[in-house]
Amino acid sequence: MNLKSIGYTEVVGLLVVLGLAASFSWLSLQVEFPYHEADSGTQLVPAEPYKEIAPAVSRFMWETRGQDIALQSFVIFASVICCLAMLKEEVPDR
Amino acid sequence: MVAQMIPLQGLAVPTPVLILVLGGVIAPFMGLAAKRTRFMLREFWAIFVTALSLYSVYQLYLQVEASVGHVLVVSSWGQNPPFSGCFEVDMLGVFMAGSITFLGVLVAIYSTSYMERETRLTEFYTLFLFLLAGLVGVTMAGDFFTLFIFWELMSISSYILVAFLKQNWGPLEAGFKYFVMSATGSAFLLFSMAFLYGMVGSLNFASFAVAFSDMAFTPWTVTLFTFLVVGFGVKAAIFPLHTWLPDAHPEAPSPVSALLSGVVIETGLYGLTRIMFLVFDPGFFRLPIAVLAFLTMTVGNLTALRQKDLKRLLAYSSIAQIGYMLVGLAAGTAYGIMGLLLHVFNHSLMKGVAFLSAGSLIHHAETRDIDELRGIGRAMPLTSLTLLVAMLGLGGIPPLNGFISKFILFNSAIGTGLIWLTVAGVLNSTLSMGYYLVVIKNLLAKPEEDHGVHEAPLPMLVVTLFIAVLILVFGVWPQPAIRVADMAATGLVENVAEYISAIFTP
Amino acid sequence: MISELSVVLVFIFLQFLIGLGCLTVKRDMVRLLIGVEILFNAANLCFVALSSHVTGFVDPLPQSIVMMAIVLDGSVIAVGLAIVINAYKHYGTLDIRRLMRLKW
Asked: Which of B89-103, B400-414, C43-57, C74-88 has the lowest mean pLDDT?
């Protein structure tokens, strides 16, 4: 790869990537993340009885996020219809 | 105040969302039945479901207006909301949902005759209903992850509806480009959700309002702001992220274009507005949003001047109108947000009728080029009249409703010291009449050969005439829309305390 | 003092940059879909990284959100693949630089 093949856009792209990498690494290492600064008490699951974490999280998920799980099933249904729409042959219906 | 709508074993969902989702699930069976009996079951089911959802949005509006503090909460299993997914319906949500379902009914009636000769109609109407369900769900969500689920439902339906006429190459390329950009935006949205969770500990909107009572200008909050603007801005077609729109809107079938330009990009803007007012305070985001508004308006209007394709010109005009709405968001006051919401409603009507009547013209003439559509006003007089009304309204000519909402938007920017933005807005509005008048001139010109009057089919004609009459009516008598928009705007900007108390004191 | 959270965030941002780079550089449609998937993965990792606040306790909220987000992202990629399959059937090639027809 000789120097002539590096065009203008590649240089600009490389500079953008380097700039983003520098700013992100400064951001994550130098500046402290405001970790749960505005937190007002959370509902936690103890990690000690190791086998009990999964049933507790599952119970939490179904009880307080049950709505989202039910609605997610409609998203899956919609994506099935999408794939059908894209992959069906074009046969006139009437 | 906690309200449960249709408690289905404790799994409560607001009624319009439930109606549209169940309608979408049953639509494939209607399609199977329609194939056997050769009766137009699919179209009637779509019109029936959307009309029913419009009625239920109206009932929900009455209920919200009658309730204390104008907010209703619907949560799953009646659980304490800070960790459960919930819907919080306030005036803003009802206003946007009303806009969405109203345009949905009209587009459903229009597409009965526009999509007549197409294949895979079952999937079209099913995805149409799921698109509306996703849109209404986004506007009523009270929790960020519930919003994300409906956002994805809306997004995947719209990807395939854009790429629907897959026998040509154009829709496929436009659909793929839209898909990549919009999926990237969703990933940015997930990132911003993660940051907000890290800062607050829950994803509920009311928790955000409580936690961020003062927002300092630290590097992490600037990063959060950037990720949020990118996440919502891809869908709302804000300046650097708008490049999918001029390809996707012309290549989609016309009823889908009307929905996309009329309500989908406004729902992206709704998400941005809601989050901005809950998480940040207006002094924080005034200047960045003002700059973005200026760039979006100018780029949209300047590029539209060079367009030769009618639908692409309307798509660039949509970008410019989003720029005008961002002026209202930059103002940050209740008056500005009222202008934004009123312009959302007016734009959905005007851009809806513009795309629908352009679709009628293109359906007849088989071409999208403005020069080749010269003189079509003689062949299709009523449809060209509706397109004329839409263009005048979009440019902001007084007796039509576009003038009122633009006036409120630019007036609100003056009130908060952004005078340069008002001047830029007025200049852009004047510039936009430049390309609208070119289209009008081509519509009214004398054609080379006279084929006689050959109007559009009846459903398409009736829908476009009805919306054109509504544009005129709302221009002369805007009070109902202004009243609801005002309640919605004060609910968002000033009455945050009631929004919070509806969740935190059940 | 660099906390463990900062180190994990560095890697999450690295994955984010890889995803964005994949989207801008690659020309094959399927590779673009993989780039989108990498971006979604980085966002999910961010949720997981920010979930361990108190030692000895597990916060169930981000775990449930990640489980649901994975399902949603999977269905989005499935829809994208349907579009790509159609593009391949239509043109026999998946190179987006040769297939950009829609101009200014």
From this structure: C43-57
pLDDT tens-digit readout, B291-301: 999 999 999 99
Question: d(Cα A83, Cα A65) in Å, to the nearest integer?
Answer: 27
Would you say residue B120 has pLDDT above 70?
yes
Could you tell me if A87 lies within 8 Å of chain B, comparing CB atoms? no
Among residues of chain B, what percentage have pLDDT more than 70?
Answer: 93
- Establish if B7 belongs to a structural domain: no
Contact of A81 with chain B, judged by CB distance below 8 Å, is answered with yes
Per residue, what are the HEC states of B334-348? HHHHHHHHHHHHHHH
Least confident of B8-17, B325-334, B343-352, B358-367: B8-17
**Residue B427 CB neighbour total at 10 angstroms:** 13
Instruction: Mark yes or no for CB contact A82/B12 under 8 Å.
Output: no
Cβ–Cβ contact A82 with B under 8 A: yes
How large is the average pLDDT for residues A22-27?
Answer: 83
Please give the radius of gyration of chain A, using alpha carbons only, rounded to the nearest integer. 25
Question: Residue B388: which domain range?
Answer: 15-504
Domain ranges of chain C: 4-91
Does some domain include residue B364?
Answer: yes
Annotated domain spans of chain A? 1-32, 47-94
Structure tokens belonging to residue A36: 């749960």
Instruction: Look at residue B10 and tell me if it is in a domain.
Output: no
**Interchain contact B9–A (C-beta under 8 A):** no
Closest by CA position to B61, among listed B505, B494, B491, B493:
B491
Q: Specify the number of domains making up chain B.
A: 1
Residues of B with CB under 8 A from a CB of C: 83, 145, 148-149, 152, 155-156, 159-160, 163, 166, 169-170, 172-176, 179-180, 183-184, 186-188, 190-191, 193-195, 197-198, 201-203, 247, 251, 306
In a domain, B395, yes or no: yes
Distance CA A75, CA C68 (A): 11
Q: Does A29 contact chain C (CB < 8 Å)? A: yes
pLDDT digits (tens, 9 = 90+) for B344-381: 999 999 999 999 999 999 888 888 888 888 888 888 88
Write b or e for each residue in B362-392: b if 16 or more Cβ atoms lie within 10 A of its Cβ, otherwise e: bbbeeebebeebbbbbbbbebbbbbbbbbbb
Q: Could you give the CA distance from residue B384 to residue B354 in angstroms, rounded to a whole number?
A: 10
Residue range C4-91 in CATH 1.10.287.3510 = yes
Whether residue C59 has pLDDT greater than 60: yes
CB of C30 within 8 Å of any CB in chain A?
Answer: no
- B84, B127, B220: residue with CB nearest A31: B220
Residues B314-334, mean pLDDT to the nearest whole number? 92
More confident residue, B4 or B176: B176
Q: What span, in angstroms and rounded, lies between the C-alpha atoms of B247 and B312?
A: 7
Nearest residue to B297 (alpha-carbon basis) of B186, B476, B418: B418
DSSP track, C29-74: HHHHHHHHHHHHHHHHHHHHHTT--STTEE-HHHHHHHHHHHHHHH
Which residues of chain B are within 8 Å of residue A72 when distances are taken between CB atoms?
Answer: 149
Q: Does A33 touch chain B (CB under 8 A)?
A: yes
Q: CB–CB of A45 and C64 under 8 A? A: no
User: In Å, how far is B184's CA from the nearest CA of chain C?
Assistant: 6
The larger pLDDT score, comparing residue B73 to residue B305, is at B305
Q: Do B119 and A90 touch (CB under 8 A)?
A: yes
How does pLDDT run across B456-478, given as a tens digit for each residue? 888 899 999 999 999 999 999 98
Q: Is the dihedral of CA A46, A49, A50, A56 positive or negative?
A: negative
ipTM of the complex: 0.95
User: What global pTM score does this model have?
Assistant: 0.93
